[in-house]
């Protein structure tokens, strides 16, 4: 399999964390791909017309996108019920946390794009800030539930979102907003799959 990949993308990181957790990394060839919003990547668009990463090319030449679909595919490839639980007791909390982590990432990426404009729209910046702080506060209240639940795609998504906050929004000071979440995350990020996929700057 081939994966259009970047060391900076939190959505790609989700896929790579899952690949490490499921012992599938040796089956994946990484293709360094730049996917800038204002500069569509013609090579990438041959596999994904949306010019977005992650995009996975399977052995038969068919393609999968986005991170949610690719992560679930990898889970199925590894036998299923590993990171995407099938038991209702664990499935719905895992999928809810997955949606919450991905939703937070969506907000953060839009926020970053807006703040890089010559004149950012103040009302949008305030909305992004409020949504981020409110999400962090909610997760802070749910730490005990996260600790009790089996490690799942929900944990992966939240960890990748928090890693992106560290990488792109250091000035936010999110640990002051969510101290219990900080303690949980600092322990979780020592997990090999997360430690090996920490976002980093690298040449295109």
Automatic annotation (TrEMBL):
Gene3D superfamilies: 1.20.1050.10, Glutaredoxin (3.40.30.10). One of its GO terms (cellular component) is cytoplasm. Residues 1-82 form the GST N-terminal domain. CDD domains: GST_C_6, GST_N_3. This is Glutathione S-transferase. It comes from Variovorax terrae.
